[in-house]
Amino acid sequence: MAGSNEINANEAKKVVPLHTWILISNFKLAYNILRRPDGTFNRELAEFLDRKVAANTVPVDGVYSFDIVDRATSLLNRIYRCAPPDTDSGRQPGAGILELENPLSTTEIVPVIIFFHGGSFTHSSANSAIYDTFCRRLTALINGVVVSVNYRRSPEHRYPCAYEDGWEALKWVHSRSWLLSGKNPKVHVYLAGDSSGGNIAHHVAVRAAESGVEVLGNILLHPLFGGEERKESENKLDGKYFVRVQDRDWYWRAFLPEGEDRDHPACNIFGPHGIDLKGVKFPKSLVVVAGLDLVQDWQLAYVRGLEEAEQQVKLLFLKKATIGFYFLPNNEHFYTLMDEIKSFVTS
Amino acid sequence: MSDQFHEQDAGVDELLAVLGYKVKSSDMADVAQKIEHLEGVFGNDDGLSQIASDSVHHNPSDLSSWLESMICELNPIVPVPVSQPFVSGVNYTGVDCVDDLQAMIYPPTKKPKPSSPSTSAGSHTPNPIVLVDSQENGIRLVHTLMACADAVQQDDVKRAETLVKQAGLLAVSQAGAMRKVATYFAEALARRIYRLYPKSPQDSPAFRDLLQMHFYETCPYLKFAHFTANQAILEAFAGKKKVHVIDFSMKQGMQWPALMQALALRPGGPPTFRLTGIGPPLDDNTDHLQEVGWKLAQLADRILVEFEFRGFLAESLADLEPGMLDLREGEVVAVNSVFEMHELLARPGAVEKVLSAVKEMKPEILTVVEQEANHNGPVFLERFTESLHYYSTLFDSLESSGDGSGVMEGGGVTVSSQDKIMSEVYLGKQICNVVACEGVDRVERHQTLSQWKAQFESVGFQPVHLGSNAYKQASMLLALFAGGDGYRVEENDGCLMLGWHTRPLITTSAWKLR
């Protein structure tokens, strides 16, 4: 098998910049070591290897952050905000003085994105460097607030823990007086996530719709969906661009309740056990699909499912993108994505 | 702070640095090659992955050496040459990574913005804040305290007086950790405003030791400090027959029973263990160090470790002369300092003098545990802000150490309310010192790892990296003693940090001479 790995390594090298190849391959290598064949996970080594970043109320490139912990649940959210434009570099009103007494604005609408980081439900945290960096970029882009949720991960915490944490985060965000904006004040909430985070965003949106909690839009960045069936993209792209089907299978086994298969509705949204979303007040969705992601046929099936349920959905198909293209601003897909997100939250 | 950009950071790839990886631009192609090699080696062989999973990893930020160590680890097993020929035909140069083929697929349409946080932050050290939900309601109190500190900074005494009174009133209406921490800070501010400086030294060493012991029982910080330092010392002592620990932070000697027990259980038997303990003299002139040494000797007797103890009384570590210490031939030396180094910063030249003395002791290893905070900046307001958030986080973590009524959930440790109160007093005194004192009296001059690193490296020390084994055991220790309630161990630049949630609070580092 060493031979085919060489070929596959070369495939990926041709389509991504060197930095991206190194970054994603490094993760692939590390994750390979962390997953055990018996379904357990080397969590201590995972946390040791993960590069983390503390929050920082000193604005960096115009964005500052701080963490809030709910003592009852130990759930942590990292909040990102834009520093006021007239920040005097000599004395920083932003540093150490948190603006938690006033709304974001009483005149303008300020978007608040609740972000669920990826990692196949198993890896990374809100304070992982790759996600802290991404959220900072997102915050500056939308000129709003990003709330990154540190949800509980599998295999220690299987379905539905991540969804419950997402739901709690949504309720929490809606109840913060300091996240209100607009002339008729309310919190203007969007849900977003990459990979498993996209999957979480979908399920939280469903629950929100069922409970009458408003979500203005969903942004799903190559979301993680699947099913028992093997789609053409899974067969064609298996092992070619950083990911193997067997890896995906491992993560589903680690996340889904024991004994369940991939047609479980958490995984296979519009599959045999899926719910009907017709008539449900579901938010508009922006679904981003990377053309070199083996999961794409499931993501495209998700888009079709939303269309058939007469929900508003826009598909952004990036033909030559691999997973993780948005971690580094060194490719055109990154900028295309940023433009799309910006217009999605301002329209 | 210029400490963010060391000389060794020159030539480091910026894009990866932001994501936590230190790779020299000139090493990029080599790193890619190593990854490719390892991919080939691992292939679909789960067995090799398992081996890598069980082995010890160090300093994952340094991708090149991390990959190299794995290659070396697996090399004897797999008969594949280390450097493989580049099959791809795509040529990556170190500096300019976009070649012709890529340029056709990927015309860079926009230039990436330089985004290295370390340089954009300018002259301000980062300020990590972890708020507990209850503090949201206390945000007015925090603002009032900060405004008061600002008034003090501006020498506006009238405004400061008004605000400190306001803060005091607001504090009373708060609950829990917020109230306690705010009260200590308000009191310290008041002392500074009214020039009622606490006398120096604030308390007798005996009382301070007592407070520290309660702090030891209440929360895992000191246990973590001792545990991780001992891990590094044990590794440095591996295979050595005669060992000598010089402890700058003797106090009640709480660190040493565990090390002695570990040495006793060593395969091949324990070494002869000598301990030199250094501490300040007590008011009543009793030789308290001898008492501590005596207790340790009794333990050594029970566990069959040959043991010798010597105590040294010194007002300051800077008074120490290596000649006084009876350094013997054939002995391997470890120097240990837990929460002592920062006090030396109150006297110019003291750190340099002590490090110079340490070098003369020719230690195999120097273990240092310090608070991970910058409480020694030149600007009062900045010190105030940093310490307010630091101690708020510390107090929050104490709050979750049980309600004092009995057994903590998830753990086997009982934290009494007395322990908790004494711990708060212990921390309160530090707060008072940071805020109300100046000059030689201000001894709580905490510095961050990067600041200590710069200092140690400039006089000839280099880091000894703490690995994933120490990390794993420290994590397990936390789970035992704290129920894992928010405490987290983090690896950073070869050192281990213990923090509460996402905020590192103390750092253990290890050093050796170049």
TrEMBL record, chain A:
Name used for this protein in its record: Uncharacterized protein
| Source species | Smallanthus sonchifolius
UniProtKB/TrEMBL annotation, chain B:
Source organism, top-level taxon = Eukaryota
Q: What is this protein called?
A: Uncharacterized protein
Taxonomically, what lineage is the organism?
Answer: Eukaryota, Viridiplantae, Streptophyta, Embryophyta, Tracheophyta
